[in-house]
Amino acid sequence: MFDQTDTSQQQPQTRGAREWIKILAAYRDSSTPRSVFELVVTLGAFVVLWGIAWKLLSVSYVLSFAVSLINAGFLLRLFAIQHDCGHGSFFKNRTANDWLGRFLGVLTLTPYDVWKRTHSVHHNCTGNLGRRGMGDIHTKTVAEYHALTRSQQLLYRLYRNPVLLFGFGPGYLFFIQNRLPLGLTEHRQFWISAMGTNAVLALWLTVTYLIGGLMPLVLIFVPSTLLAATIGMWLFYVQHQFETTHWEADEDWHMHEAALEGSSHYVMHPVLQWMSANIGIHHVHHLNSRIPFYRLPEVLNDHIDLAESNRMTIRESFQNARLHLWDENSKTLVSFKQARQLRG
Fold it and tell me: CA 166 to CA 65: how far, in whole Å?
């Protein structure tokens, strides 16, 4: 089903990152009818499946639970639309983007204005060793890791452990961490965003409980949200965590080169690509975040160099999950075992 050829080393050969920036500007314009269509299809399916799952509670808890898991795909896609709103690429109108993003932030448990700011930092700092810590999966260099105490090394290993990162991490991030504007607590607007989202979310869940009791929350809300969060966190992880990704010290870092070389092209089945709103075409997205998600395949169709750049299959992505440290000498992401060998 997937092309298993190892092409992770491939980079566009004919054009540099700065030249791609000029070329991709032609794809920035969104289409309001197309955007409305994508929103209606996704949000409509999400609401309908919520209703079906609720109706099935009186028939079978197992069937209701199963439908809620299917609905996680549409919730993931709503998050992707919220993501485009944050970049100002879904609608031409900034106000429309922001208010749609705030509405969807309730469904995705993600305060829109807080996320918009931290995600902007992520885009502006990707691959910069001097500006890590906000909006990314924290990655240490081999030298930094060896300089830690044993207890600090253990904590980092626990943090990067896939079982904890993708088992415990999504629930913590979306159910707990997102309730406060961590890292932005000195700014009033981000408190308003977080508390406003929390208030509307609490109202929605309270009304749901008063009408249907505990089961709609336990068998519909929690499973769909948790599965969507887990898939979303995995996608975010693999888009920058691969062997030949890009990291540089602050003085040597250039944003466009980091965007092109440090973001993957995650090759997925068309159904998965649709559910994730083409977010796997991440290198193009980082080169120009104003391109609407539904135009990203158009870029690859027009430019074979980008279509073949940083390709990563699903099988390869699981292999990359064992890489945790950046080796500044070989310019590659390595495993803990490889880091020990490098030290020896």
Answer: 21
Count Cβ atoms below 10 Å from residue 77 Cβ, excluding itself.
24
End-to-end CA distance of the chain: 41
pLDDT for residue 50 is more than 50:
yes
3-state helix, strand, coil in the chain (%, to 5): 65, 5, 30
327 bridge partner residues? 332
**E strand or H helix at 183:** none
- pLDDT tens digit sequence for 132-169: 877 788 999 999 999 999 999 999 999 999 999 999 99
Cβ-based burial of 120 (10 A; exposed 0-12, middle 13-18, buried ≥19): middle
3-state secondary structure of 140: strand
pTM: 0.92
Single-letter code of the amino acid located at 46: F
Distance CA 33, CA 87 (A): 19
